[in-house]
Design goal:
This protein is mainly α and about 450 residues long. The chain is about 65% helix and about 0% strand. The protein has 19 helices and two strands. The chain has a two-stranded antiparallel sheet. α3 runs parallel beside α10 and α14 packs across α16. It is globular.
Protein backbone atom coordinates (compact mmCIF):
# COMPACT_ATOMS: atom_id res chain seq x y z
CA UNK A 1 0.00 0.00 0.00
CA UNK A 2 1.41 3.39 -1.00
CA UNK A 3 2.00 6.10 1.57
CA UNK A 4 -0.49 8.31 -0.26
CA UNK A 5 -3.33 5.77 -0.02
CA UNK A 6 -2.73 4.75 3.59
CA UNK A 7 -4.39 7.79 5.27
CA UNK A 8 -7.47 7.48 3.05
CA UNK A 9 -7.83 3.76 3.82
CA UNK A 10 -7.51 4.48 7.54
CA UNK A 11 -10.11 7.24 7.22
CA UNK A 12 -12.56 4.92 5.44
CA UNK A 13 -12.01 2.22 8.06
CA UNK A 14 -12.59 4.69 10.89
CA UNK A 15 -15.76 5.98 9.20
CA UNK A 16 -17.04 2.41 8.81
CA UNK A 17 -16.43 1.67 12.50
CA UNK A 18 -18.18 4.88 13.55
CA UNK A 19 -21.14 4.08 11.31
CA UNK A 20 -21.38 0.54 12.70
CA UNK A 21 -21.20 1.84 16.27
CA UNK A 22 -23.91 4.39 15.52
CA UNK A 23 -26.21 1.74 14.05
CA UNK A 24 -25.70 -0.53 17.06
CA UNK A 25 -26.38 2.34 19.47
CA UNK A 26 -29.52 3.29 17.55
CA UNK A 27 -30.64 -0.35 17.59
CA UNK A 28 -30.23 -0.50 21.38
CA UNK A 29 -32.11 2.77 21.94
CA UNK A 30 -34.91 1.68 19.63
CA UNK A 31 -35.28 -1.68 21.39
CA UNK A 32 -35.48 0.04 24.77
CA UNK A 33 -38.32 2.16 23.42
CA UNK A 34 -40.20 -0.87 22.12
CA UNK A 35 -39.56 -0.38 18.40
CA UNK A 36 -37.32 -2.33 15.97
CA UNK A 37 -34.00 -0.73 15.14
CA UNK A 38 -32.48 -0.21 11.69
CA UNK A 39 -30.43 -3.41 11.77
CA UNK A 40 -33.44 -5.55 12.65
CA UNK A 41 -35.66 -3.82 10.11
CA UNK A 42 -33.11 -4.30 7.34
CA UNK A 43 -32.41 -7.95 8.22
CA UNK A 44 -36.14 -8.77 8.11
CA UNK A 45 -36.38 -7.58 4.51
CA UNK A 46 -34.12 -10.37 3.32
CA UNK A 47 -37.17 -12.64 3.64
CA UNK A 48 -40.24 -10.66 4.78
CA UNK A 49 -42.17 -8.17 2.60
CA UNK A 50 -40.12 -4.96 2.41
CA UNK A 51 -41.55 -1.57 3.22
CA UNK A 52 -41.85 0.84 0.29
CA UNK A 53 -38.47 2.46 -0.07
CA UNK A 54 -35.36 2.88 -2.18
CA UNK A 55 -34.35 -0.77 -2.51
CA UNK A 56 -34.25 -0.68 -6.29
CA UNK A 57 -32.80 2.83 -6.09
CA UNK A 58 -29.98 1.39 -4.00
CA UNK A 59 -29.51 -1.37 -6.59
CA UNK A 60 -29.30 1.24 -9.35
CA UNK A 61 -26.61 3.13 -7.45
CA UNK A 62 -24.69 -0.06 -6.83
CA UNK A 63 -24.74 -0.90 -10.55
CA UNK A 64 -22.73 2.22 -11.49
CA UNK A 65 -19.58 0.14 -10.84
CA UNK A 66 -20.71 -2.71 -13.13
CA UNK A 67 -20.39 -3.23 -16.86
CA UNK A 68 -23.57 -3.25 -18.93
CA UNK A 69 -23.52 -7.05 -19.11
CA UNK A 70 -23.16 -7.27 -15.32
CA UNK A 71 -25.96 -4.74 -14.87
CA UNK A 72 -28.36 -6.84 -16.93
CA UNK A 73 -27.43 -9.94 -14.92
CA UNK A 74 -27.91 -8.15 -11.58
CA UNK A 75 -31.25 -6.64 -12.65
CA UNK A 76 -32.52 -9.99 -13.99
CA UNK A 77 -31.46 -11.71 -10.78
CA UNK A 78 -33.28 -9.10 -8.67
CA UNK A 79 -36.49 -9.33 -10.68
CA UNK A 80 -36.32 -13.14 -10.71
CA UNK A 81 -35.93 -13.33 -6.93
CA UNK A 82 -38.87 -10.96 -6.47
CA UNK A 83 -41.05 -13.05 -8.78
CA UNK A 84 -40.19 -16.17 -6.78
CA UNK A 85 -41.12 -14.42 -3.53
CA UNK A 86 -44.42 -13.20 -5.02
CA UNK A 87 -45.33 -16.69 -6.24
CA UNK A 88 -44.44 -18.33 -2.93
CA UNK A 89 -46.45 -15.81 -0.92
CA UNK A 90 -49.37 -16.23 -3.30
CA UNK A 91 -49.15 -20.03 -3.03
CA UNK A 92 -49.18 -20.02 0.78
CA UNK A 93 -51.76 -17.19 0.88
CA UNK A 94 -49.48 -15.01 2.99
CA UNK A 95 -50.72 -11.59 3.97
CA UNK A 96 -48.73 -8.87 2.20
CA UNK A 97 -49.35 -5.19 3.02
CA UNK A 98 -50.14 -2.91 0.11
CA UNK A 99 -47.12 -1.68 -1.90
CA UNK A 100 -44.81 -4.24 -0.25
CA UNK A 101 -44.71 -6.89 -2.97
CA UNK A 102 -41.29 -6.13 -4.45
CA UNK A 103 -37.87 -5.22 -3.13
CA UNK A 104 -36.37 -8.40 -1.66
CA UNK A 105 -34.72 -9.17 -4.99
CA UNK A 106 -32.86 -5.87 -5.05
CA UNK A 107 -31.46 -6.53 -1.59
CA UNK A 108 -30.44 -10.06 -2.58
CA UNK A 109 -28.71 -8.72 -5.69
CA UNK A 110 -26.67 -6.20 -3.66
CA UNK A 111 -25.68 -8.85 -1.13
CA UNK A 112 -24.81 -11.21 -3.98
CA UNK A 113 -22.51 -8.61 -5.54
CA UNK A 114 -20.79 -8.24 -2.17
CA UNK A 115 -20.17 -11.98 -2.09
CA UNK A 116 -18.82 -11.89 -5.67
CA UNK A 117 -16.52 -8.99 -4.78
CA UNK A 118 -15.06 -10.85 -1.82
CA UNK A 119 -14.72 -14.27 -3.46
CA UNK A 120 -14.10 -13.50 -7.15
CA UNK A 121 -12.38 -10.10 -7.27
CA UNK A 122 -9.02 -8.85 -6.07
CA UNK A 123 -7.22 -5.57 -5.62
CA UNK A 124 -8.78 -2.35 -6.97
CA UNK A 125 -11.63 -4.24 -8.67
CA UNK A 126 -12.73 -5.76 -5.37
CA UNK A 127 -12.52 -2.39 -3.64
CA UNK A 128 -14.53 -0.66 -6.37
CA UNK A 129 -17.30 -3.25 -6.31
CA UNK A 130 -17.49 -3.14 -2.51
CA UNK A 131 -17.74 0.64 -2.68
CA UNK A 132 -20.68 0.27 -5.08
CA UNK A 133 -22.39 -2.23 -2.80
CA UNK A 134 -21.75 0.02 0.19
CA UNK A 135 -23.24 3.00 -1.66
CA UNK A 136 -26.42 1.10 -2.47
CA UNK A 137 -26.80 -0.34 1.01
CA UNK A 138 -26.12 3.07 2.57
CA UNK A 139 -29.11 4.51 0.76
CA UNK A 140 -31.33 1.68 2.00
CA UNK A 141 -29.92 1.68 5.53
CA UNK A 142 -30.19 5.45 5.66
CA UNK A 143 -33.93 5.15 5.12
CA UNK A 144 -34.19 2.57 7.92
CA UNK A 145 -32.10 4.75 10.21
CA UNK A 146 -34.36 7.72 9.51
CA UNK A 147 -37.48 5.69 10.22
CA UNK A 148 -36.01 4.56 13.53
CA UNK A 149 -35.06 8.12 14.46
CA UNK A 150 -38.65 9.24 13.81
CA UNK A 151 -40.06 6.48 15.99
CA UNK A 152 -37.65 7.42 18.78
CA UNK A 153 -38.70 11.08 18.61
CA UNK A 154 -42.35 10.16 19.03
CA UNK A 155 -41.61 7.86 21.98
CA UNK A 156 -39.14 10.05 23.86
CA UNK A 157 -40.61 13.54 23.32
CA UNK A 158 -44.12 13.56 24.83
CA UNK A 159 -44.48 17.34 24.41
CA UNK A 160 -43.95 19.48 21.31
CA UNK A 161 -42.96 23.11 20.76
CA UNK A 162 -45.37 23.95 17.95
CA UNK A 163 -46.88 26.99 19.71
CA UNK A 164 -43.42 28.59 19.82
CA UNK A 165 -42.82 27.97 16.12
CA UNK A 166 -46.33 29.13 15.20
CA UNK A 167 -45.71 32.43 17.01
CA UNK A 168 -42.32 32.85 15.34
CA UNK A 169 -43.96 32.12 11.98
CA UNK A 170 -46.01 35.30 12.32
CA UNK A 171 -42.81 37.13 11.35
CA UNK A 172 -43.05 35.52 7.90
CA UNK A 173 -46.81 35.99 7.55
CA UNK A 174 -47.87 32.42 8.42
CA UNK A 175 -46.94 31.02 4.98
CA UNK A 176 -48.25 27.52 5.73
CA UNK A 177 -51.75 28.89 6.21
CA UNK A 178 -51.48 30.87 2.95
CA UNK A 179 -50.09 27.91 0.99
CA UNK A 180 -52.72 25.59 2.43
CA UNK A 181 -55.53 27.80 1.15
CA UNK A 182 -53.86 28.11 -2.26
CA UNK A 183 -53.50 24.34 -2.52
CA UNK A 184 -57.17 23.89 -1.60
CA UNK A 185 -58.09 26.29 -4.40
CA UNK A 186 -56.01 24.37 -6.98
CA UNK A 187 -57.20 20.89 -5.99
CA UNK A 188 -57.17 18.23 -7.29
CA UNK A 189 -54.48 18.98 -9.91
CA UNK A 190 -52.16 20.94 -7.64
CA UNK A 191 -52.60 18.44 -4.83
CA UNK A 192 -51.72 15.45 -6.99
CA UNK A 193 -48.65 17.09 -8.52
CA UNK A 194 -47.20 18.27 -5.22
CA UNK A 195 -47.99 14.97 -3.51
CA UNK A 196 -46.05 13.12 -6.22
CA UNK A 197 -43.08 15.48 -5.89
CA UNK A 198 -43.07 15.26 -2.10
CA UNK A 199 -43.32 11.46 -2.02
CA UNK A 200 -40.71 10.81 -4.73
CA UNK A 201 -37.89 12.97 -3.41
CA UNK A 202 -35.60 9.95 -3.03
CA UNK A 203 -36.23 9.01 -6.67
CA UNK A 204 -35.16 12.49 -7.78
CA UNK A 205 -32.01 12.17 -5.69
CA UNK A 206 -31.18 8.79 -7.26
CA UNK A 207 -31.64 10.22 -10.77
CA UNK A 208 -29.25 13.10 -10.05
CA UNK A 209 -26.75 10.75 -8.39
CA UNK A 210 -26.85 8.36 -11.35
CA UNK A 211 -26.03 11.25 -13.67
CA UNK A 212 -23.09 12.27 -11.49
CA UNK A 213 -21.83 8.68 -11.26
CA UNK A 214 -22.41 7.79 -14.92
CA UNK A 215 -18.67 7.43 -15.70
CA UNK A 216 -17.68 5.28 -12.72
CA UNK A 217 -17.77 2.03 -14.67
CA UNK A 218 -15.51 3.36 -17.44
CA UNK A 219 -13.12 5.38 -15.25
CA UNK A 220 -13.05 2.70 -12.50
CA UNK A 221 -13.24 5.32 -9.75
CA UNK A 222 -15.85 7.48 -8.02
CA UNK A 223 -15.90 11.26 -8.45
CA UNK A 224 -14.58 13.22 -5.51
CA UNK A 225 -17.92 14.85 -4.73
CA UNK A 226 -21.47 13.65 -5.42
CA UNK A 227 -24.99 14.05 -4.06
CA UNK A 228 -25.32 10.77 -2.15
CA UNK A 229 -22.89 11.77 0.60
CA UNK A 230 -24.61 15.10 1.28
CA UNK A 231 -28.05 13.45 1.10
CA UNK A 232 -27.12 10.79 3.64
CA UNK A 233 -25.35 13.24 5.95
CA UNK A 234 -28.42 15.49 6.05
CA UNK A 235 -30.54 12.48 6.98
CA UNK A 236 -28.07 11.42 9.66
CA UNK A 237 -27.66 14.78 11.41
CA UNK A 238 -31.13 16.25 10.98
CA UNK A 239 -33.06 13.90 13.28
CA UNK A 240 -30.68 14.80 16.08
CA UNK A 241 -32.08 18.33 15.91
CA UNK A 242 -35.60 16.86 16.04
CA UNK A 243 -34.72 15.55 19.49
CA UNK A 244 -33.67 19.02 20.64
CA UNK A 245 -36.58 20.88 19.03
CA UNK A 246 -39.60 18.55 18.75
CA UNK A 247 -42.27 19.93 16.42
CA UNK A 248 -45.06 18.05 14.58
CA UNK A 249 -46.31 20.66 12.10
CA UNK A 250 -49.39 22.86 11.63
CA UNK A 251 -51.70 20.19 10.23
CA UNK A 252 -51.16 18.24 13.46
CA UNK A 253 -50.86 20.97 16.09
CA UNK A 254 -53.51 23.23 14.53
CA UNK A 255 -55.56 20.76 12.49
CA UNK A 256 -56.97 17.24 12.35
CA UNK A 257 -53.72 15.44 11.61
CA UNK A 258 -53.09 13.13 8.67
CA UNK A 259 -51.74 9.71 7.64
CA UNK A 260 -53.51 8.03 10.55
CA UNK A 261 -51.83 10.06 13.31
CA UNK A 262 -52.79 13.10 15.31
CA UNK A 263 -56.38 14.29 15.63
CA UNK A 264 -58.36 17.30 16.74
CA UNK A 265 -58.25 15.99 20.30
CA UNK A 266 -54.47 16.52 20.31
CA UNK A 267 -54.47 19.87 18.52
CA UNK A 268 -53.99 23.20 20.25
CA UNK A 269 -56.93 24.43 18.15
CA UNK A 270 -58.56 23.42 14.85
CA UNK A 271 -57.38 26.40 12.80
CA UNK A 272 -55.28 25.23 9.86
CA UNK A 273 -55.38 26.46 7.08
CA UNK A 274 -58.22 28.98 7.16
CA UNK A 275 -57.63 30.80 10.46
CA UNK A 276 -54.11 31.95 11.42
CA UNK A 277 -53.24 31.20 15.06
CA UNK A 278 -53.82 34.11 17.45
CA UNK A 279 -50.82 35.69 19.14
CA UNK A 280 -50.76 34.10 22.58
CA UNK A 281 -48.02 33.20 25.05
CA UNK A 282 -46.60 29.83 23.85
CA UNK A 283 -45.92 26.79 26.00
CA UNK A 284 -45.05 23.11 25.33
CA UNK A 285 -48.10 20.97 24.60
CA UNK A 286 -48.52 17.18 24.85
CA UNK A 287 -49.01 15.17 21.68
CA UNK A 288 -49.62 11.53 20.78
CA UNK A 289 -46.92 8.90 20.96
CA UNK A 290 -46.83 7.93 17.27
CA UNK A 291 -46.55 11.16 15.27
CA UNK A 292 -42.89 11.91 14.42
CA UNK A 293 -41.50 15.20 15.73
CA UNK A 294 -39.83 15.85 12.37
CA UNK A 295 -40.33 19.51 11.50
CA UNK A 296 -37.36 21.50 12.75
CA UNK A 297 -35.53 21.78 10.43
CA UNK A 298 -37.44 20.74 7.32
CA UNK A 299 -35.29 17.93 5.95
CA UNK A 300 -37.41 17.71 2.80
CA UNK A 301 -36.39 21.32 2.15
CA UNK A 302 -32.76 20.49 2.97
CA UNK A 303 -32.75 17.49 0.61
CA UNK A 304 -34.46 19.43 -2.18
CA UNK A 305 -31.89 22.21 -1.71
CA UNK A 306 -29.08 19.66 -2.02
CA UNK A 307 -30.63 18.29 -5.22
CA UNK A 308 -30.90 21.84 -6.56
CA UNK A 309 -27.23 22.54 -5.78
CA UNK A 310 -26.02 19.34 -7.42
CA UNK A 311 -27.95 19.97 -10.65
CA UNK A 312 -26.33 23.37 -11.28
CA UNK A 313 -23.46 21.86 -13.25
CA UNK A 314 -25.64 19.47 -15.25
CA UNK A 315 -27.36 19.90 -18.61
CA UNK A 316 -30.26 22.32 -19.00
CA UNK A 317 -32.95 19.68 -18.50
CA UNK A 318 -31.38 18.53 -15.23
CA UNK A 319 -31.02 22.11 -14.01
CA UNK A 320 -34.67 22.77 -14.79
CA UNK A 321 -35.71 19.58 -12.99
CA UNK A 322 -33.66 20.53 -9.91
CA UNK A 323 -35.26 23.98 -9.79
CA UNK A 324 -38.76 22.56 -10.26
CA UNK A 325 -38.21 19.96 -7.53
CA UNK A 326 -37.04 22.58 -5.06
CA UNK A 327 -39.95 24.96 -5.74
CA UNK A 328 -42.52 22.16 -5.73
CA UNK A 329 -41.11 20.69 -2.50
CA UNK A 330 -41.33 24.08 -0.77
CA UNK A 331 -44.93 24.37 -1.93
CA UNK A 332 -45.77 20.85 -0.78
CA UNK A 333 -44.19 21.15 2.67
CA UNK A 334 -46.20 24.32 3.33
CA UNK A 335 -49.37 23.53 1.40
CA UNK A 336 -49.94 20.14 3.01
CA UNK A 337 -49.37 21.63 6.46
CA UNK A 338 -46.30 19.54 7.24
CA UNK A 339 -44.09 22.54 8.04
CA UNK A 340 -44.07 26.15 9.12
CA UNK A 341 -42.24 28.80 7.13
CA UNK A 342 -39.45 29.13 9.67
CA UNK A 343 -38.81 25.37 9.33
CA UNK A 344 -37.99 25.89 5.67
CA UNK A 345 -35.58 28.74 6.41
CA UNK A 346 -33.77 26.51 8.92
CA UNK A 347 -33.74 23.68 6.36
CA UNK A 348 -32.04 25.82 3.71
CA UNK A 349 -29.37 27.02 6.15
CA UNK A 350 -28.85 23.45 7.37
CA UNK A 351 -28.42 22.09 3.83
CA UNK A 352 -25.97 24.79 2.78
CA UNK A 353 -23.90 24.26 5.92
CA UNK A 354 -23.72 20.49 5.42
CA UNK A 355 -22.95 20.82 1.71
CA UNK A 356 -20.32 23.44 2.47
CA UNK A 357 -18.71 21.12 5.02
CA UNK A 358 -18.59 18.21 2.56
CA UNK A 359 -17.09 20.36 -0.19
CA UNK A 360 -14.54 21.83 2.22
CA UNK A 361 -13.55 18.34 3.34
CA UNK A 362 -13.05 17.33 -0.29
CA UNK A 363 -10.72 20.18 -1.19
CA UNK A 364 -9.00 20.51 2.18
CA UNK A 365 -9.99 22.57 5.19
CA UNK A 366 -9.05 25.98 3.86
CA UNK A 367 -9.92 29.18 5.71
CA UNK A 368 -12.91 30.16 3.56
CA UNK A 369 -14.51 26.73 3.94
CA UNK A 370 -14.05 26.66 7.70
CA UNK A 371 -15.53 30.16 7.99
CA UNK A 372 -18.55 29.12 5.91
CA UNK A 373 -19.24 26.03 8.04
CA UNK A 374 -18.78 27.96 11.29
CA UNK A 375 -20.97 30.82 10.11
CA UNK A 376 -23.73 28.51 8.82
CA UNK A 377 -23.70 26.60 12.11
CA UNK A 378 -23.91 29.86 14.07
CA UNK A 379 -26.82 31.17 11.99
CA UNK A 380 -28.66 27.85 12.30
CA UNK A 381 -28.22 27.86 16.09
CA UNK A 382 -29.29 31.52 16.28
CA UNK A 383 -32.47 30.78 14.33
CA UNK A 384 -33.41 27.92 16.66
CA UNK A 385 -32.71 30.08 19.72
CA UNK A 386 -34.86 32.88 18.33
CA UNK A 387 -37.75 30.52 17.54
CA UNK A 388 -37.58 29.11 21.06
CA UNK A 389 -36.90 32.19 23.20
CA UNK A 390 -38.12 35.17 21.12
CA UNK A 391 -41.35 33.96 19.50
CA UNK A 392 -43.54 36.65 21.06
CA UNK A 393 -41.18 39.41 19.94
CA UNK A 394 -41.11 37.92 16.44
CA UNK A 395 -44.91 37.79 16.32
CA UNK A 396 -45.32 41.33 17.69
CA UNK A 397 -42.74 42.91 15.34
CA UNK A 398 -42.93 41.03 12.02
CA UNK A 399 -41.69 44.07 10.08
CA UNK A 400 -38.36 43.71 11.94
CA UNK A 401 -37.89 40.00 12.55
CA UNK A 402 -39.25 38.75 9.21
CA UNK A 403 -36.59 40.58 7.17
CA UNK A 404 -33.94 39.61 9.73
CA UNK A 405 -34.78 35.90 9.37
CA UNK A 406 -34.69 36.12 5.57
CA UNK A 407 -31.51 38.21 5.67
CA UNK A 408 -29.82 35.58 7.85
CA UNK A 409 -30.71 32.88 5.31
CA UNK A 410 -29.59 35.11 2.42
CA UNK A 411 -26.24 35.73 4.10
CA UNK A 412 -25.56 31.98 4.29
CA UNK A 413 -26.57 31.60 0.64
CA UNK A 414 -24.19 34.41 -0.31
CA UNK A 415 -21.38 32.90 1.74
CA UNK A 416 -21.94 29.49 0.15
CA UNK A 417 -21.95 30.85 -3.40
CA UNK A 418 -18.85 32.96 -2.78
CA UNK A 419 -16.95 30.10 -1.13
CA UNK A 420 -17.83 27.33 -3.57
CA UNK A 421 -17.73 29.37 -6.77
CA UNK A 422 -15.16 27.79 -9.07
CA UNK A 423 -11.94 29.70 -8.91
CA UNK A 424 -11.01 30.75 -12.41
CA UNK A 425 -7.30 31.38 -12.96
CA UNK A 426 -6.55 34.92 -13.93
CA UNK A 427 -5.62 35.15 -17.54
CA UNK A 428 -2.01 36.13 -17.89
CA UNK A 429 -1.05 39.05 -20.12
CA UNK A 430 0.19 37.83 -23.49
CA UNK A 431 3.94 37.61 -23.67
CA UNK A 432 5.49 40.36 -25.81
CA UNK A 433 6.44 39.17 -29.23
CA UNK A 434 10.15 39.62 -29.97
CA UNK A 435 11.03 42.16 -32.58
CA UNK A 436 12.53 40.71 -35.72
CA UNK A 437 16.31 40.98 -35.65
CA UNK A 438 18.48 41.51 -38.72
CA UNK A 439 20.28 38.40 -39.85
CA UNK A 440 24.00 38.35 -39.18
CA UNK A 441 26.14 39.09 -42.18
Amino acid sequence: MSARRAPRVILWAAAALVALGFLIALEVVARRNGVPGPITAQAREVVFPPKPGPLYGGLALMMVVLTWRQRFIAAAFAVGVDLVFVLVRWAVDAHVPEDQYFGNGALWAMLGCAVVAITRRTGPERLLMLKGVGLGLLLVTGRKTGDTWLLITSKTRPTVLDPYVAMADHALGNPSWVAGRILDATAPVGTHVLDLVYAQLAVAAVVVALYQLRDVASERRFPRHHLVRTFLLIGLLGPGVYMLFPVVGPIFAYGPGTSGTGGVEWAVADLWPHTPPPITLPHPVPYDGITPRNCMPSLHTAWATAIFLHTRTGPRLLRFAGTFWLVATLGATLGFGYHYGVDLVAGVVFALTVEGAVRTFDRGWDRSGVVLVAYGTAVFAALLMAYRYLPMEMAAHPWLYGPLVLLAMASVIYGYVRTTKPRQPKSAAPAPRPEPQPEPV
